[in-house]
Amino acid sequence: MIGKISGRLDYRMGDHVLIEAAGVGYIVHCSERTLAALPAEGGHVALYTEMVVREDLMQLYGFLTLAEKEWHRLLTSVQGVGAKAALAILGTLGPEGTSRAIALGDVAAVKTAQGIGPKIAARVVNELQDKAPAIMALGASGARRAMAHAPAASAVPTEPQIIDDLPPEPAGDGMAQADALSALVNLGYGHGEAASAVAQAAGDGGDAGTLIKAALKLLAPKG
């Protein structure tokens, strides 16, 4: 299984790119949002990847972050949502917007993606709402690690390579609370109310995903 490809962007098309890594060219399908964020042809690019294998087809799908990749995997687990439909949702909303819409039960936002009707959108929200906090935590911790380990502007790209996907590093209680707070603020909650909810939820312990889920219940409208 190819978990990540790092190399030179050879060319891009409407729904995919070709990345040359160690002398091999890989066609990788991406969402519109991901394609727009990639450098110009000839630039260095690194994408997390997921391989979709069917009886008559084998394709690589690429993602800028682990959170985006995980959302694609979860979206395709919903009946009626294929790999391209999942890309359409991520291309329209982005991983953070997808987290926000599903966590808050916003069916209308999900159905704005091309090819996603109201029944499929409702199914996505109903089946994945409980899983959204864990992905929100993954995105928050990934952003924190990226800031902590960001290379200097003058750094030279590493040698093109293909490496296995790695799980996110575990976080201590303080980092779990920080990730939960970051995720809630990204959902649109005020820093004060989000911090209060996280602090209250932290009394029972748990990882960032657990804290987010508990805090969302505390922040939900009463009555």
UniProtKB/TrEMBL annotation:
Protein keywords: Cytoplasm, DNA damage, DNA recombination, DNA repair, DNA-binding
Return the annotated region ranges for Domain II. 65-142
List the molecular function annotations (GO) for this entry: ATP binding; four-way junction DNA binding; four-way junction helicase activity
Q: Where is this region: Domain III?
A: 153-223
In its keyword annotation, does this UniProt entry include Transferase?
A: no
**Positions of region (Domain I):** 1-64
* Compartments, as annotated in UniProt: Cytoplasm
List the Pfam families. Answer: HHH_5, RuvA_C, RuvA_N
| Xref: InterPro entries | DNA_helicase_Holl-junc_RuvA_I, Hlx-hairpin-Hlx_DNA-bd_motif, NA-bd_OB-fold, RuvA, RuvA_2-like, RuvA_C, RuvA_C_sf
Main localization of the protein described in the UniProt heading: cytoplasm
Q: Which GO terms describe its biological process?
A: DNA recombination; DNA repair
- Name a single GO cellular component: Holliday junction resolvase complex
- Helix-hairpin-helix DNA-binding motif class domain residues are 73-92, 108-127
Known role: The RuvA-RuvB-RuvC complex processes Holliday junction (HJ) DNA during genetic recombination and DNA repair, while the RuvA-RuvB complex plays an important role in the rescue of blocked DNA replication forks via replication fork reversal (RFR). RuvA specifically binds to HJ cruciform DNA, conferring on it an open structure. The RuvB hexamer acts as an ATP-dependent pump, pulling dsDNA into and through the RuvAB complex. HJ branch migration allows RuvC to scan DNA until it finds its consensus sequence, where it cleaves and resolves the cruciform DNA.
Oligomeric state and partners?
A: Homotetramer. Forms an RuvA(8)-RuvB(12)-Holliday junction (HJ) complex. HJ DNA is sandwiched between 2 RuvA tetramers; dsDNA enters through RuvA and exits via RuvB. An RuvB hexamer assembles on each DNA strand where it exits the tetramer. Each RuvB hexamer is contacted by two RuvA subunits (via domain III) on 2 adjacent RuvB subunits; this complex drives branch migration. In the full resolvosome a probable DNA-RuvA(4)-RuvB(12)-RuvC(2) complex forms which resolves the HJ.
**Domain observations:** Has three domains with a flexible linker between the domains II and III and assumes an 'L' shape. Domain III is highly mobile and contacts RuvB.
Q: Which family does it belong to?
A: Belongs to the RuvA family.
Q: What is this protein called?
A: Holliday junction branch migration complex subunit RuvA
